[in-house]
Structures are given as C-alpha cells and as structure tokens.
C-alpha cells in the first residue's frame, strides 16, 4: 500500500505542477492541500471519479478542521456550527459509500483501499470485536484530518525555507537533477526515494524548523520524577517540542536552516516532529514520502522559485502555525531540452 500511495502522490503532484508551471505562479499551501487531500482520500476510500463530490468533501473537511479551534457555540453562522454541519455531510457521504459497497457484495469487490480493509475485517470479526460503521467512519475522517493539513503545512514551510536559502536550493537541485537523469524521468518509487539522502535531510530540517505540532499534552498516570522535577499523578504535562527543536544545547545555531546538521547522530528524544513513544504519529512515513516527492518534483521541474509576496505574517487561529498568504511563489520552468 505504501508503494501505491507514493505512486498516486507522484501522479497527482506531477499533474498539479505541470498546470501551475504553465501560469508561472503557485500558492504552495493551496497546491499542497489539494494533492495531500487527494492522495490520502485515494488511499482511504479509493479513487473518486466524481470531481464535484470530491470538491465538496474537501471543503467539508476544511470546515471541520477550522471548527476544531472555534468556540463551541452551536448557532447558525458560527465556525463551530459550520463544522458540525460539514461533519454530518461527510459522514452521510461515507455511509452511502459503505451501503453501496455492501450492496455490491464486499467479497466480490476487488478494491484494496483502507475502507474496504476495515469493512472486510468487521465482516469477518466476531460481533464483540468488530468495529461498528460509526467507528469505521470516525477512523477514516480522523486520518484525513490528521494527515492533510499537517503535511500540507509542512510542505509549505519547506518551500519557503528553500525560497529563502537559494544556495541550498541550488545545491539540492543539482543533486536531484542528477538522480532524475538516472531514473530517466520514470514515476518515482520507494527505491528512488531511498536514494535521496540530502533531500531527506532537507525534509527533516524543514520539519524541525516548522515544528507543525508545537506541543502535545499528556496526563501523568502516576507520581514520577523527570530531570529532578516531581510530577504528581493526574497532572497535565505539555511536551514543548518547539522549545526542544530551538534549544541551542540540542541543536547548534537552531535558527539556521541547515539540512547537513542531520549528518550527525542525534540525541535521543531531540527530534519530536512526529511525537514520541506509544502515540507517535501513525502517518509519519506517508508524510515523509509526500514531502520528498513534492520536493523532488518541484525542484527538478523548475530552475528556481522565489517568494511572490514577502509578507511573513501568520494566520490567526490556524490549528498549526502557517503563513497567512499561503506562500505564493513565482516559478521558472526548466527547459528539459537544455538538461541533457
Ligand atoms: C508532516 C506531517 C505530520 C506531522 C507533523 C504529524 C505530527 C503528529 C504528531 C506530533 C503526533 C503525536 C501527537 C501526540 O503525541 O499527542 C501525531 C499523531 C498522529 N498522526 Fe500525525 N503528523 C503528520 C502527518 C500525518 C499523516 C499523513 C497521517 C495519516 C494519514 C497522520 C496520522 C496521525 C494519527 C492517526 C495520529 C495519532 C496516533 C495515536 O494517537 O496513536 N499524521 N502526528
């Protein structure tokens, strides 16, 4: 499934960049939200042919995400209310999809998406163990929400950091073009991604600098001691990942964007972009794959990009810190005939 996911993402981003390349401009956040959403949906509920339905689902998911930080006021017109309505529409659409699959006969259906896997499993499991339809739907929506905005935001920061660091952009481009010429422009596979050492370090450095999930809360299950501090049972503890990622005792010169810092071994628990321990991000491999493919396609299709708007103000009330302008860039396509 991971290989199929990488292939789907590669297909989607290649098409998107081709279209953006024609206009010479892109708003990175919009492009990233679009392709991450499509790839994740394809993995979870299979390819969707009805563009209108997919568009509605995407805008409903966005409304749900935006309601998550809103004041819980259930009155028409509020962000919270819009989120509730959107969630209802999403669940209705997914319920219809489940009905349709059951009517067609689950076992005859040759789909291999996540929804199908869950449906088949709950069909086979004993009634006490089987997931209910509502639990299946909740799982699907959770994965879309956990995966789309996080990854799209990370991609946006990565493009911004490289837009600000043109030397690094150049260095990475020459490495990636070299790799691309060895792949003969074939669709990217996991094997290709495994050879992208410097690009991978660039992804990690972007994740460190951006720290999309700034902190995560935990509840102490028993009295304990951490680094000399007494922590009592039931206390709520915030793990402040951003402070760790910007601690000069952990990362030299932490405000500098420097992928090569990952040449060295890291201290344990110093890289918390995906959390740590038993609740570590379930989608971290998928996220890294999306970031690497996006980066490779962007850097090998355009001879440079630069910020089209230098305003660095952040969006207020966003779930994760992100640029208000969504990071608009100007793109200069590479003339492929010049490359070889
Ligand atoms: C760059 C992108 C991403 C970042 C920065 C990120 C970050 C995180 C972090 C920090 C946590 C742990 C939160 C905690 O400990 O309280 C987490 C959990 C989780 N993430 Fe991600 N994530 C990303 C992408 C994804 C993707 C693509 C998916 C799936 C499609 C996903 C699914 C999940 C799930 C299901 C959990 C909950 C795991 C659990 O509680 O057992 N994430 N993520």
TrEMBL record:
GO terms of biological process kind: brassinosteroid biosynthetic process; brassinosteroid homeostasis; sterol metabolic process
Listed pathway(s): Plant hormone biosynthesis; Hormone biosynthesis
Residues bound to heme: 281
Cofactor section: heme
Organism domain of life: Eukaryota
One GO MF term attached to the UniProt entry: heme binding
Keywords attached to this entry: Heme, Iron, Membrane, Metal-binding, Monooxygenase, Oxidoreductase, Transmembrane, Transmembrane helix
Family classification: Belongs to the cytochrome P450 family.
Protein name: Uncharacterized protein
Organism: Aegilops tauschii subsp. strangulata
């Amino acid at each position: 499934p991971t290989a199929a996911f990488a292939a789907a993402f590669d297909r989607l981003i290649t098409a998107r960049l081709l279209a953006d390349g024609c206009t010479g401009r892109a708003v990175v956040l919009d492009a990233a939200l679009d392709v991450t959403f499509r790839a994740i949906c394809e993995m979870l509920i299979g390819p969707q042919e009805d563009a209108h339905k997919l568009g509605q689902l995407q805008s409903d998911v966005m409304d749900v995400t935006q309601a998550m930080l809103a004041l819980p006021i259930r009155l028409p017109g509020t962000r919270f209310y819009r989120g509730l309505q959107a969630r209802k529409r999403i669940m209705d659409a997914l319920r219809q999809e489940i009905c349709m699959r059951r009517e067609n006969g689950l076992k005859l259906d040759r789909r291999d998406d996540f929804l199908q896997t869950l449906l088949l499993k709950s069909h086979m499991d004993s009634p006490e163990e089987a997931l209910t339809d509502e639990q299946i739907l909740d799982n699907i929506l959770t994965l879309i929400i956990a995966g789309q905005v996080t990854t799209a935001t990370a991609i946006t920061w990565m493009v911004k950091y490289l837009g600000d660091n043109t030397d690094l952009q150049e260095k990475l481009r020459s490495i990636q073009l070299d790799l691309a010429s060895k792949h003969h422009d074939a669709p990217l596979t996991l094997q290709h991604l495994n050879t992208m050492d410097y690009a991978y370090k660039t992804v990690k450095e972007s994740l460190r600098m951006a720290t999309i999930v700034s902190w995560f809360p935990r509840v102490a299950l028993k009295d304990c001691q951490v680094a000399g501090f007494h922590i009592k049972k039931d206390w709520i503890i915030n793990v402040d990942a951003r402070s760790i990622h910007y601690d000069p005792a952990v990362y030299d010169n932490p405000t500098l964007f420097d992928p090569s810092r990952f040449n060295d071994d890291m201290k344990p628990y110093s890289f918390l972009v995906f959390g740590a321990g038993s609740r570590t991000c379930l989608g971290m491999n998928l996220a890294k794959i999306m970031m690497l493919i996006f980066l490779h396609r962007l850097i090998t299709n355009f001879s440079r990009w630069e910020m089209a708007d230098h305003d660095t103000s952040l969006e207020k009330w966003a779930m994760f810190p992100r640029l208000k302008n969504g990071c608009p860039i100007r793109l200069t396509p590479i003339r492929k005939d010049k490359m070889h």
